[in-house]
Structure prediction request, 251 residues.
Amino acid sequence: MQKNTSWDKVGDWYKDAVGDKGHFYHQEVILPNVVRLLKLNPTAKLLDLGCGQGVLARAISKEVAYLGLDLSPNLIEEARKLDQNPIHKYGVADICKELPIKYSGFSHAAIILALQNVAHPFKVFKNLAIHLNKGGKLVIVLNHPSFRIPKHADWEVDRVKKIQYRKVDCYMSPLEIPIESSPFDRINNVSTTSFHYPLSAYSEMLFDNGFVIEKIEEWVSPKKSEGGMAEVEDKARKEFPLFMAIVASKK
Prediction:
């Protein structure tokens, strides 16, 4: 039986966390860079998989045709409320299964902070291979798979050397990691699942589905610390990126 990875059960929490325009990192890092990498023109057709409540749709030009799909009815309902653009469409779908759309011909696709929440990313790439035009561009944003592995990577401080660094206890092994939405709130706490793969696995999945990686970008946090450790923390923040972006095209 396939694991249900829908975020419907944490939909209300996620809507509060992200809101209409996205959380801090959406606004300051992710959305501006994704729009830059997509290079959408007015005739583009964008497929957004794992779209949540459609935060990307509200960051692109209103002239661009858009379809957002997500497994959560709660989040899709919110997306439709927030987006009144008549050429923006939304649907409830498991992006690991055959997509319930009758047409292909998308020029662009995006998966923004969603691929690590699905159990079968290979099947997601297979769907993209079906629905993207030849030469179509795909932009993927991940929590950095080398440094941001939930429960298996953390900050450590060496006070003698006056440095902060990342401790990573595993990387190459695929992982299925339970994540609690509110670990200190027993009544409202809900568990979701994060799936870890090394970068080489994503490269192989893309290659096997007819994609070529054009570039990889790594994005750091723009936040600044205060207090006695500010200089050490700010230096470490610049060295260890939060996010990885993969730009690929369909052969």
